[in-house]
Design a protein that fits this description.
It is built from 15 helices and 17 strands. By secondary structure, it is an alpha+beta fold. Helix 10 runs antiparallel to helix 11 and helix 12 crosses helix 13.
Length: 631
């Protein structure tokens, strides 16, 4: 256990440092004490023998040098640390040197004098000492004054004291301290080991219990009986694991009982969690094995690998929708792929899948119902046009027949002019029928590159003959050149037909009985170089998600505004009019699907819808469609 090792090393280091510092401090203080004691003993010892040396000097030195030497040697026999001594008078003259005894002869010269530095200390009336360095050795110099009977300071004896005994004593002290230090370090080692084990044992018990509890899905408890804080820690951990266990059970039970399929993968594509709904939706005959890779479990998920990688890289939501899996034909799925950030560089994914096949079927029926309403709205105008076309054909045929009867036409080739007129009229009728058929047919969403102005011209042309004659339609193109967009041609026609018919109704059938029908529908086209929030009204958030707006910022758009002078829309209905089956029209005058389909088609083309309206003054519907980008 790393903690045990750290505690052991830390404790050992602390004890080592404290023991070392204490040992060094003790050795230093003991050495100081020993040195002071040594010097005091040397002072006392030399003080006791100083007077005896002077007496022996006066008694024997001049008369019997051998007797003098013998007495001096006897006096100093128990003192091993005196290397030399001098007897000097008050003038600094050396009267005797211990070297004379070693050489066994007197020193005959009369001019022996001590150093001037020592002369001042010779005159001291008290014992003193100083350390001198001689030949790289340290010696203790002790000066002892000697007084006569009348306490006159007549002589001083200078002792050269060796520090060998002190050095030997210090060496012994160091050796003893080192031995004690080694013994203490051994004791420290065992103490640190015992202390580390004692301190970390409860943590080891708790750690093992936590590991065991995690392996058993937090079902087991930590059993730890102690009066110390570790018992409180164990109790808190048990409470925490109970909370984790309860929350985990809530999450897992919720996920397993959801009616939406959930599959959770780690960064390596290994399945962490899979609920029963996911298995049923994809018609898989078993649950995934432990540590099974997702494409081994359901190989068609490999089709979503690019989306998986994008989610892991950008950590953003990806949505995939449609008939995705070839093994499940006629099944439509809505799939959300979300990032699962486990650690800083470890990102798994959550796959949420719903079967929207029934919704698609319902949506198709609604579309067909809305198309029926759209065709019904166009029918009266188109019927009038058909009536005019049939009348033109009949008139042309009558004229041709009259000319034949009156013999104005002599050759068959001369009736070509009449036939050409009839063919043109028939072509116009054919175009109207084709358009009605294209609106009524079910078809898949398919985008192609188209010219926005071309499709608007066509829609306006048909709308002019379809709406009430009291309505005038004006078109203003504020762009230059081709206005290319990528869109579904038929669905885009439906989108604008719905908006134009809605505008026409607001100026006719939605007016009060005593109000006059009619007005102007203005259709305006602008190019927006860089889209921003400023291009929208304050109502935009009611019709568009924030993600759509944020993803559109800075991009190029065409803005198509359809402006009417009709009854307008009350503000409280802004967020209702785009809901299916909601209608402000009178009974039997609308299904409430037109504007719902408009909003769906705008978002299907990655566009934005905006609305500004004031009651009794009219409405402006603005459709923003992205400009075609040639990849």
């Amino acid at each position: 256990m790393k903690l045990k090792k750290r505690v052991f090393l830390t404790t050992t280091l602390i004890l080592f440092i404290t023991t070392f510092i204490k040992g060094m401090l003790f050795s230093f203080l003991f050495y100081q004490y020993s040195e002071n004691l040594f010097k005091e003993n040397a002072l006392n010892l030399t003080k006791n023998i100083a007077s005896d040396i002077v007496q022996i000097y006066h008694k024997y030195y001049e008369n019997s040098f051998s007797a003098f030497s013998k007495n001096i040697l006897y006096l100093l026999s128990d003192i091993k640390d005196i290397k030399n001594f001098l007897i000097v008078d008050m003038n600094g003259k050396i009267l005797f040197s211990y070297d004379e005894i070693n050489s066994k002869q007197k020193y005959q010269k009369e001019d022996r004098l001590i150093d001037k530095d020592l002369l001042s200390k010779v005159h001291y009336n008290f014992s003193t000492y100083l350390q001198i360095y001689k030949d790289r050795n340290v010696e203790l110099l002790i000066i002892q004054p000697v007084f006569d009977f009348y306490q006159r300071h007549l002589y001083s004896i200078i002792f050269y004291y060796s520090l060998n005994s002190l050095i030997r004593q210090s060496f012994y002290l160091i050796s003893l301290s080192l031995a004690i230090f080694i013994i203490l370090m051994i004791l420290n080692y065992f103490f640190s080991s015992i202390f580390a084990s004692y301190l970390t044992k409860p943590l080891e018990i708790i750690l093992e219990s936590v590991k065991k509890s995690r392996e058993e899905e937090y079902k087991s408890k930590i059993n730890f009986n102690s009066d110390y804080e570790f018992n409180i820690l164990a109790l808190e951990l048990n409470r925490m694991m109970k909370t984790i266990r309860d929350e985990r059970n809530i999450i897992i039970n919720t996920l397993y009982n959801l009616k939406t399929g959930i599959l959770v993968l780690n960064n390596d594509g290994i399945i962490i969690l899979c609920n029963e709904t996911f298995v049923k939706l994809l018609s898989i005959d078993r649950f995934p094995f432990e540590n099974e890779i997702f494409y081994d479990y359901f190989s068609e998920l490999k089709k979503l690998e690019n989306s998986f990688d994008k989610v892991k890289k950008n950590k953003t939501l990806e949505i995939v929708e449609g008939e995705i899996f070839s093994s499940l034909p006629q099944s439509y799925f809505y799939i959300e792929i979300l990032p699962l950030v486990l650690e800083e560089n470890d990102c798994g994914i959550i796959i949420r899948i719903d079967d929207i096949s029934k919704n698609i079927q319902i949506q198709r029926r609604l579309v067909q119902l809305q198309k029926g309403e759209l065709i019904n709205s166009l029918a009266s105008g188109l019927a009038h046009d058909f009536n005019n076309l049939i009348g033109s054909i009949k008139s042309t045929a009558i004229l041709a027949n009259a000319d034949i009867i009156s013999k104005k036409i002599e050759k068959i080739s001369e009736i070509d002019e009449y036939l050409e007129i009839i063919m043109d009229i028939a072509k116009s009728a054919e175009d109207i029928v084709k358009h009605l058929l294209s609106l009524s047919k079910h078809r898949e969403f398919s985008k192609t590159k188209i010219d926005l102005i071309e499709i608007l011209d066509k829609i306006i042309k048909i709308s002019k003959i379809s709406v009430d004659k009291s309505i005038k339609i004006e078109f203003y193109n504020y762009t230059r050149g081709l206005c290319l967009i990528e869109a579904d041609y038929i669905l885009l026609e439906e989108l604008f037909f719905n908006l134009i018919i809605n505008a026409a109704h607001s100026m006719t059938i939605m007016r009060k009985e005593n109000e006059k029908w009619g007005g102007v529908i203005s259709i305006e086209v602008y190019k927006i170089e860089s889209f921003s929030i400023k291009d929208l009204s304050e109502n935009y958030h009611l019709f568009n998600s924030e993600d759509i707006i944020q993803n559109s910022l800075g991009k190029e758009f065409y803005k198509i505004s359809i402006i009417d002078s009709g009854v307008g829309i009350e503000k409280e209905n802004f967020n209702k009019i785009f809901q299916p089956f909601f209608s402000t029209k009178s009974d039997n005058l609308g299904t409430g699907l037109g504007l719902s389909m408009v909003l769906t088609l705008v978002h299907l083309h990655k566009g934005i819808l905006d609305l500004v309206s004031e009651v009794n003054y009219g409405s402006t519907f603005s459709v923003f469609l992205p400009i075609y980008e040639d990849s």
